[in-house]
Design brief:
- The chain is of the alpha+beta class.
- It folds into three domains: 148 residues, DnaJ domain (Helix Hairpins); 76 residues, HSP40/DNAj peptide-binding domain (Sandwich), CATH 2.60.260; 85 residues, Sandwich (HSP40/DNAj peptide-binding domain).
- It is rod-shaped.
- Helix 2 packs antiparallel against helix 3.
- A hairpin with a 7-residue loop joins strand 5 and strand 6.
- The strands form seven sheets. The protein has a four-stranded mixed β-sheet with strand order 12-13-17-16. A three-stranded mixed β-sheet has the order 7-11-10. A two-stranded antiparallel sheet has the order 1-2.
Length: 331
Amino acid sequence: MPIKYKDYYEIMGLPRTATQDELRKTYHKLARKYHPDVNKSKDAEARFKEVAEAYEVLGDPDKRKRYDELGQDWHSGQEFRPPPGWENVHFEYQGQPGRRGGQRGFSAEEMGGFSDFFESLFGGGGMGGMGGMGGGMHFEEDDFGGGGRHYHRGEDHEAEVTISVEEADRGGKKSIALQVTEMDARGRMQRRTKTYEVRIPAGVTDGARIRLAGQGGEGVGGAGDLYLRVRLAPHDIFKVTGHDVEVVVRVAPWTAALGGKVTVPTLGGRASLAIPAGTQSGQRIRLRGKGLGGKGDLYAVVQIAVPKRLTSKERELFEQLARTSSFDPEA
């Protein structure tokens, strides 16, 4: 008796060239969308079984190879008879229905069984908690103190976000746009730009990760998380290492020699800095608590600057200093 051909690629909404990774990700999304414990619409369970069966075939390289040998000329719903030789094909199923370490798998019979089309090609067999589905989901009794089923979460994703040093210092909310791959209403994978509202913690450092719960890949047990790896954009004035900040401060020769007060830029504005007498070029002077988010320190790196042009009086004084000073910088 002829049966109806099932186009498993059409069910998954993917081309025949889809990779195993694309199949797995699409299966997780569709299974999450149509699982009857999540989706209460009338056709959800039937759609879920279709997706599960399609992935049982396409998610297993051996089954997929046999299925692809049927060719691309078949269309969903056409009458179909297995080609000669298929009656001797048999596939093993990895699932083991029944008790397993205190957990119970759900068999194909409990899920409603495979379709006639599937069994005509691959023979009968339990889904066995879908353990043989190429690394897909399985359904088990809940470990968390009671009944119900335990579902796998979706994958965690990671992306980079670049922020300014000022944003890292003060924190706050920031809108970022990322390219994501999602399934459209027709079940096709599409790339689009998605905007996220991110809370930047004050004092976040370069390389830190910010977690956006539930913004990762979809799964029957809920979505995974999105982790944003923070990168600090280069700054014209400040150099940041961890929570510490470094800034160059230029001082006059007489200030370095005699000591005095100068103002320096900080992340919170300008601050007064005491220059000790005899300060050397390249010397680092610390301002406590003036680092990133108030969690580190600011280091002022002294750079002694000399005037490019001298007035006649300045020249006279420098010449007098040169004649009378015994200072030898090479000593």
